[in-house]
Write a structure and sequence with these properties.
Layout (H helix, E strand, L loop, with lengths): L4 E5 L2 E7 L3 E6 L9 H5 L5 E3 L2 H6 L4 H4 L7 H4 L8 E3 L9 H5 L5 E5 L2 E2 L12 E4 L9 H5 L5 E6 L3 H4 L2 E5 L9 H5 L5 E4 L6 E4 L9 H5 L5 E5 H4 L13 E6 L9 H5 L5 E4 L2 E7 L9 H5 L5 E2 L14 E2 L9 H5 L5 E8 L7 H9 L3
Antiparallel strand pairs: 1-2, 2-3, 3-6, 4-5, 6-7, 8-15, 9-14, 10-13, 11-12, 16-19, 17-18
Bound molecules: iron/sulfur cluster (SF4).
Iron/sulfur cluster binds next to helix 12.
Length: 365
């Protein structure tokens, strides 16, 4: 009899079966949203979604509870040894239903080392996130806003000296090494040695921003300012010296297509296509502001409203429909049934198999 072998490492695991073909199901806990699609669609009921949020709420301090962007779920959960899901390897038939329906590839089934999403007979969701480097100005707003820390923006700034319009010089015959300029220089570009007999003053031309504070404050008028712009007209900066270049990278393993990058990008360089369309609503009457939904949401699509002041009670959470990925983890976590998430459209590659069509239809509302 062929049996499944399970290997657990940290919060991840592999289930492997070797027969005519080698099937391997890998689970990556830090990628998992805890949405439970796998649990609800597994044909042999081998998968259990674990109550991470409820467990965690008993074990963390209130500081973590309200920590907003810092509370990306994988950090939030760092100290816990509970996997988001469990799979009973004796029941699992390695059919790949969970892998095909997982919206973030936390479960990946390979057949002879090929992921099923690369095999034409299996479907995969149509979703993407990208940043157009021609439009990007490398402001890093997306990197800061991304709740999954999936974006890295590397930027190369122009040389500051190329953007400065002049140079500062010191007439050492006039300088009395008082150090007033050194103390006032906002760029910390001046170093004065006050030691008697060894006095000196040095101006770092790379650090100087030509603000002229030193010249204006010098009691002996020893500082000379040479304005490059004045000699050549109004402004002699070469525009090419001021260009910021760079590179943007989205980690496809961590990105869940929440759309924060697109939402905050000032130049429309970021584009996101979500796999699911739908809606999220919070019933203000039922919500007790316990925060379980805020804790499990990996998209920062739920938040507490800004407090009205000391002593005021936050009545209920707010849902940002724009940034919700319709995973439903929040609705599952809510002990009061206050959240309704609807998945009205599921965008996926064409599929002929009736079983897969039914499975994809079943995750729609
Ligand atoms: S929606 Fe539910 S889980 Fe979220 S704060 Fe309100 S009661 Fe708690």
């Amino acid at each position: 009899m062929i049996r499944n072998l399970k290997e657990v490492k940290d919060n991840n695991f592999d289930i492997t079966r070797s027969a005519d073909e080698v099937r391997n199901l890998s689970f990556n806990d830090h990628v998992c949203l805890g949405c439970g699609i796998c649990e609800s669609t597994c044909p042999v009921e081998a998968i259990t979604l674990n109550a991470i949020a409820v467990d965690a709420r008993h074990r963390i301090s209130n500081d973590v509870y309200f920590s907003g962007h810092e509370k990306i779920a994988q950090n939030f959960k760092e100290d816990f040894d509970v996997q988001r899901i469990s799979i009973d390897e004796s029941k699992c038939v390695l059919c790949g239903m969970c892998s095909g329906l997982c919206p973030v590839d936390a479960l990946v089934l390979t057949i002879d080392d090929v992921p099923i999403k690369e095999i034409e007979a299996y479907p995969h969701y149509i979703a993407f996130s990208e940043i157009d480097d021609d439009e990007c100005v490398y402001c890093k707003r997306c990197e800061i806003a991304c709740p999954r820390d999936a974006i890295v923006i590397d930027r190369i700034l122009p040389n500051r000296a190329d953007l400065v319009t002049g140079e500062i010089d010191v007439d050492e015959d006039e300088c009395i090494y008082c150090g007033v300029c050194e103390e006032l220089c906002p760029a910390e570009a001046i170093i004065v040695d006050h030691e008697t007999g060894k006095e000196s003053i040095v101006i770092d031309k790379d650090a100087c921003v030509y603000c002229l504070v030193c010249k204006k404050s010098c009691p002996t008028n020893a500082i000379k300012a040479i304005c490059r712009a004045c000699n050549y007209g109004e402004y002699d900066l070469n525009p090419s010296d001021a260009v910021v270049t760079g590179n943007s990278v989205i980690d496809s393993e961590l990105c869940v297509y929440c759309g924060w990058c697109e939402g905050v990008c000032p130049t429309d360089a970021a584009k996101v296509k979500k796999p699911f369309e739908g809606s999220i609503e919070v019933d203000d009457e039922k919500c007790q502001a316990c925060g379980a939904c805020v804790d499990v949401c990996q998209c920062n699509a739920l938040a507490f409203p800004v407090s009205a002041g000391p002593g005021s009670r936050m009545e209920h959470v707010t849902a940002f429909d724009e940034f919700c990925v319709r995973c439903k983890a929040c609705a599952k976590a809510c002990p009061n049934g206050a959240i309704t998430v609807k998945r009205t459209e599921v965008d996926h590659t064409p599929i002929n198999s009736t079983t897969w069509k039914e499975a994809l239809d079943a995750i729609k509302d």
